[in-house]
User: Fold this.
Amino acid sequence: MTNQQLPKTINWGIIGLGNIAHKFATDLLTVEGAKLYAVASRNQDKADTFATKYNAITAFDSYEVLAKDPNIDAVYIATPHALHMENTLLCLEHGIAVLCEKPFAMDYDEVSKMISKAKAKNVLLMEALWTYFLPHYQYVLKALEDKIFGAVIKLEADFGFYRAFDDASRLFNKSLGGGSLLDIGIYPIFSALSTLGIPKNIEAKASYFENGADASCDMVFKYDNNVKAYLKSTLLEDTPGEAIFQCENGTIKINSGFHGPTTVTLLPNNGTAEHLDFGYNSIGYKYEIIHFNTLLRQEKTQSDVMTFAFSEQLIKTLDQVRSLINLQY
Assistant:
């Protein structure tokens, strides 16, 4: 900004210091007007190590103490899924804006309580589904809206990787929301809801690990005009990780790792393929951070991209799939 004072630096806190928190903190360091102020883990040594690595001012061994720190403007919640509601409500109660990692919570009932609390306290709350804010995904949303190849006929989206079963790992811990559906199945479901809307009908089947966590889930979302979305999540094998929108006059393909920074290929039915590179130079979390910071500076209490209504529909759809495959936490 020329001849103007830069906006106040937004002091961030992070609750839960696992793998995704490291990625978030790495990108936070690249965002102008934002600082990692405090981090919290149930383990003080872990908090201290994390704080040193990312230049945080303070490290706490208590989420409650972090939530009471008056210097913190926003908190990123990166704890296991089963703790999202509890941690979010704690921060909202103390008037701190919350960016909560996806899935927002375990079910619609929990999400509803979080949104109600945010409205009651008049505090910003948003689900951190980073894909929505990535430039390549925004491009595809616009291309589909503009019908550059006509209407969508079929969507195929998958997310899968192989992990040897480990009962001690959060990824496989059913009580923490582990399993393929909530961890990674949310992304193919998101791709359908954000482009095709709410399906008229859903079919789903799943396979399970010995502890009852879902190992894989195959879904078919059915829409009007015989439009279908074939969606898959799995922890049993590596899959292409693509989102392919077959349209009347061509195909829009989000290439491998569609949920994160990647490329897009345009394939007209009669013409030459065009490969689009979006010049990513970060892990990709900075885009949702910048959006959230802007909302905070504008004193907004809800995102106009990741709206409460969309988060509610997303968790309702996850609940519906869970019901169809008889998955209970």
